[in-house]
Amino acid sequence: MTAIASPSIHNLIGGMWVTSTSPAGIELLNPATGEPLGNSPAGSAAEVDAAVQAAHAAFASWRTVPAADRVQYLFKLKSLLEVHLDELASLITIENGKTLAESKGELRRGIENVEVACGIPVLMQGYSLEDVAPGIDEIMVRQPLGVCAVITPFNFPLMIPLWFLPYAIATGNTVVLKPSDRVPFSAARLLELIQETGLPDGVVNLVNGGKAAVDALLDHPLIRAVSFVGSTPVARHVYARGSASGKRVQCQGGAKNHVVVLPDADQETTTKIIADSAFGCAGQRCLAVSVTVTVGEAKDWFRDAIASAASSLKVGNGLDPNTQMGPVITHASRERVVSLIGQGADQGAKTIVDGRRTNGNAGAGSFVGPTVLDGLPAQSPLMETEIFGPVLSVVHADTVDEAVAMIERSAYGNASSIFTSSGASARKFRTSVSTGNVGINIGVPAPMAYFPFSGWKGSFFGVMHAQGRDAVEFFTDKKVIVERWPKEWSRKF
């Protein structure tokens, strides 16, 4: 078992680990045991400025390093992440609560992004055309922006930093990473490994803190771009404030993801996949299914099948290899989820599986068990609320069109899926549904790193998404060069 090496939380500024001088922020507890892990600093504008200045100073030389040389550090990082995978997974589980298997899966997704970013010598290429006019050539090149801020949430302590950081530095930018103040230890260990690659000091910096640190990054004149993942209200704030400061901003927000189950879906496979999607990571992921819409006769078998699957899950400490679902992040999160389950019951839903009484909450952990709410009314506020816990609502529709209409009414547009053996139904669904990520017989349609992690409506603010070609576009500016070299000029030399 990996333990937290030290409860002290430091910033990394210009290659030096320094103690935060800001006031203490939130107390950090192991979500499964309640054991204290330390205190996260509140953060300050002065600390943010020091990190940004270090990144700015490093940018001038880093941008001139050939792309093929820049990615060598990423090749080394990939190797180090593989070597330390078990250690990092344990660290994620201790401070976040998810199971070891989920932590390892998160890391695999992060490593995948490092691998894709290693292709920057090809992905960053521009294009050219000779003789756009007589004797005139035109060239488009991509150049780095400068200092980029990366602000990440608690639910994926390492995967989401790796959505952005590898692409930013591979394209020649420098970075200030501000991890969630609830999970600072994983990010610190990641940056220790980055230092082991020999990456020049100041190219990647780490500053801890809460809202004060975030706002300081959004306002800082040397920050050129901001990447953010979190709830929709905060995403809207980050996007508005960062954009008002003239920055390029991409913000992944919240979600209320639906899956549609048709009568011809494979019952066993569908139930297992949806249970994994709804209750994996204790429901604390932006692609978790929140609402299952059964169509026609699917209602007859799905309700009992999902109730059985939810009831059978073993809830406990994620470090236990037998655990299938861990706790939510804090006691406050648990109380919020429990309260929302109660609201659903008060509004007419039947709690066919009630996680409020899970035996996983014995002791000091922040456990809430898998919960299935059947028949939540369409007008219930919970149909639009991102619960961010292991709660699945089951509702019914008579037709696919009716099911799609339910999805269209949602203010969110992160992901949706359909389970069916009909190609025609699947094609109709994927064409008409207004979500950025779509699954066909897939519960969590998480794009591979070489595709953009899409999101529509209230789930995303910006133009270019994370990962793949979108990441290259986001972290570079296009420069167009038009040049003419008349023959008579060349004869002078």
From TrEMBL:
Gene3D superfamilies: Aldehyde Dehydrogenase, Chain A, domain 1 (3.40.605.10), Aldehyde Dehydrogenase, Chain A, domain 2 (3.40.309.10)
GO molecular function, one term: methylmalonate-semialdehyde dehydrogenase (acylating, NAD) activity
Catalytic activity, EC: 1.2.1.27
Enzyme superclass (EC): oxidoreductase
Record GO biological process: L-valine catabolic process; thymine catabolic process
Coiled-coil residues: none
Domain Aldehyde dehydrogenase: 17-480
Keyword match S-adenosyl-L-methionine: no
Keyword terms: NAD, Oxidoreductase
NCBIfam families with a match to the protein in the record: MMSDH (TIGR01722)
Protein name (record): methylmalonate-semialdehyde dehydrogenase (CoA acylating)
